[in-house]
Model the fold of this input.
Amino acid sequence: MWSCITDFFTYETTKSVVVKSWTIGIINRVVQLLIIAYFIGWVFVHEKAYQVRDTAVESSVMTKVKGFGIYNNRVMDVADYVTPTQGASVFCIITKLITTENQVQGFCPEVCFPCADVVLSSQLVCHAAFCTNWIPTGKCVRFNDTMKTCQIQGWCPAEIDYIKTEPMKEVENFTIFIKNSIRFPLFDYTKGNFLPTINKSYISSCNFDMVHHKYCPIFRVGDVIQYAQQDFMKLAHKGGVIGIKIAWMCDLDRGDEHCSPSYSFTRLDAMSQNNSISPGYNFRFAKYYKMDNGTDYRTLVKAFAIRFDVLVNGNAGKFNMIPTLINMVAAFTSVGVVSLLQGHMTAMPRCTLPTAFWLATGDM
Amino acid sequence: MWSCITDFFTYETTKSVVVKSWTIGIINRVVQLLIIAYFIGWVFVHEKAYQVRDTAVESSVMTKVKGFGIYNNRVMDVADYVTPTQGASVFCIITKLITTENQVQGFCPEVCFPCADVVLSSQLVCHAAFCTNWIPTGKCVRFNDTMKTCQIQGWCPAEIDYIKTEPMKEVENFTIFIKNSIRFPLFDYTKGNFLPTINKSYISSCNFDMVHHKYCPIFRVGDVIQYAQQDFMKLAHKGGVIGIKIAWMCDLDRGDEHCSPSYSFTRLDAMSQNNSISPGYNFRFAKYYKMDNGTDYRTLVKAFAIRFDVLVNGNAGKFNMIPTLINMVAAFTSVGVVSLLQGHMTAMPRCTLPTAFWLATGDM
Amino acid sequence: MWSCITDFFTYETTKSVVVKSWTIGIINRVVQLLIIAYFIGWVFVHEKAYQVRDTAVESSVMTKVKGFGIYNNRVMDVADYVTPTQGASVFCIITKLITTENQVQGFCPEVCFPCADVVLSSQLVCHAAFCTNWIPTGKCVRFNDTMKTCQIQGWCPAEIDYIKTEPMKEVENFTIFIKNSIRFPLFDYTKGNFLPTINKSYISSCNFDMVHHKYCPIFRVGDVIQYAQQDFMKLAHKGGVIGIKIAWMCDLDRGDEHCSPSYSFTRLDAMSQNNSISPGYNFRFAKYYKMDNGTDYRTLVKAFAIRFDVLVNGNAGKFNMIPTLINMVAAFTSVGVVSLLQGHMTAMPRCTLPTAFWLATGDM
Done:
């Protein structure tokens, strides 16, 4: 038993011979250098392995669109063309409208291919080309002087959605005001996209600009679309989705001014461009009214819109003892190990391992 | 000093004896094999450690519901039963309505337990069972021939929300059209869920199907609910939340066709099923009208709906030198280290370490 | 060749001498102890390295606000003050309104700085201080007895948004009911924030409370705001965004009761507080009406609101063989390696490496 305890605290080292081989010696050192370089250059400087990182950023976005447009000789303001209205991180600016006024529940000819009355199982049925998305009554009725179409039941008159209309050009000059606050819960660090350097008068006048005003929180729609490499008129015609990305890459060891937002812009529904199937972005909604006698009627609106998604992502790092230690130990260990391995390799039977191995261990 | 420099470039290796012990020798090799197997099989092939991964996928989702239903002898179309209307990644299809028409600000008996006039501190007070969510006036008034209830102030008449109504059966046959574009910013790789193999005519006719049409972007509500292992009628009655998950697992080393969406479906508010407390999903909203004299009145709607959340997640990998190198070095090192350790272990005093250790190092 | 095979299975170990140096011996053991401590204490117990983790939690949130307020002598209920109405994870409770009734398309003086008629290039132009966000007609017209302002075209009368109004005090006592189901797809584990311990009667009566009712899913607005260290009246006046965070930290090895939600509250738009530029949160929307003759008119509403974002994050761990093995091997290896390195270090030329190195390897 006693021998065990002594054993336990005796120190046992390997007997070693010193070979005065410069070649191998140099290789040995070079490999060690490489490793040290790797750890210092990549692990520590580039990857910042001495920091703890927080990527679960808490963010809140508020948006406000400003500007006035004229559409069908009516002045449109925010309440008319922005939806949803809450000014959250996702919102649509309507650029084009196809409105069908005064729809009431009833019967009317559908807006579709001409039809003909045919007798099916001894009864008249309205027959038309593929076009059965409404509830048909089976009658073939007069649509206009030139043609008859199948009669349907529903909100009448039916929408004529192939009318060509021009989008609202003024949208290009509308401005989007973005207020974004973030918080890194791990470090309890809070910041907003109104940098301390920004004052009221600046905001009331500035316009975002990649070069001169990269921290101005007001974005001209036209600019945003341009930065996303899109053509405004095309987009306004068909509609689409634009992503406004706010990235917060923060090195909290380097003071507050090294934590500021960087904006970038992409078209999110990129597929729509190079795809003929259902290009663009549009949706339908209705405004409901009541006649004095209580019957409902509505205005159906097919809206072509540019949707903006404000996407916030963040990544903050701060010095911390634990990762630093772990990585330093790792570094030193590997330096030691390698030179050890080499010793081992040289002493190993040559034929056992593939050449790749020798290279990897820097020996040969 | 000079000796140092020479030292620096001399190479020092451990003196070693070759023991012709087959047992230990075999163990030694087996352990090495295991390690190699682990690195090749798990780290490289399974975990694809030679790739850099991008999991921060940018995605945009557009949805469009199609179909017509009949509810209370009225034909309902998209604008009537889908909310919010913007066709974003989260939308509700209303299946059941409890409408309270022509509410005006005023006084009326609440819809609740019968009440009695009691004298509290020498004044009449309306007394009823627990039911105080409205603003009471303190009077006990006639509700109908059979009972009296407390009078309240607010939008009158008060909603009677215990009426039994049937959900809109047609919803089962509605179709959801999903357009999803994704982008992996790290590789600037963009793709959409309309695969090149899909053409216009196919889309206009297809219906998603796990087996034959797994890339068709049109989903029948009934199918979706079935895939989520739910019963349509139950869901339509109580309402609920269904998740449509689109997963993009892309190996960008293997060409474009190895990056395609895979759809899956779950019920997100699973809790609601096996929980009696407030099952299902419903919400209230109002449509506002004005009389000629300017007084407001509204139609209060309690809507039971099926909410669909389209959740997109992605994960793309692409070959990259740095991780490959790091992992290869790691592999070779550990192979070397182990055989070294063994040597060491055998030469170590036996009693110092637990048996587990011997096993772990493959020696004994 | 044969020699190779024999070589392959022969076992080669390092010749070693046993130095009876207690100092180094003790250091050697201490270092080993440190490593073992690190692996057991930090890697296994603290970091739970023996588990696989799932952080991609699937979540669905339903919310319902209850309560009645009085604003401008009108009783407001959910349908009046909550928007959007769908009861999703983000919703606003309107606390203050500035309504502009009966707006019609037309011409009217803008609500702005007084103006003067000036002659520009031989024609009269309305000249006023900076205030050009509307579409001007160029005339300077009577606004009220005291001043004239530029005439504009649009929805008239123009909004007067500097009227002071009091927020709806009752909001403080409104309650938010939150239903949250989560699922960890990796383990197919589903749970909801109605714990089994909660029954119907409890829910109908309880109110969330950090101490006594930490699992009650009903939150008093006033409490939430207090927990977020905010002042209700200030918030109700200017508006703001409150985050309700639900964290699911689950150790699935320790049974169902060790997986329960923990609620926390912060102000998300923290920036707004200490920033004079556009504090708070407000937005505009309109209700549209029609006269008998078909002309549209609307009620423009500028709403100050408290927005609530329910943010869910989860992290579940469960025992798994692979990570356990990997980490155990890592542990044992490093123990071995270190004692090896030491042996090596002591035998190394002293001058080659920095002292830090000696320390790191625990030798000297």
Remarks:
- The first helix of chain A runs from residue 2 to 9.
- Residues 1 and 7 of chain A are 10 Å apart (CA to CA).
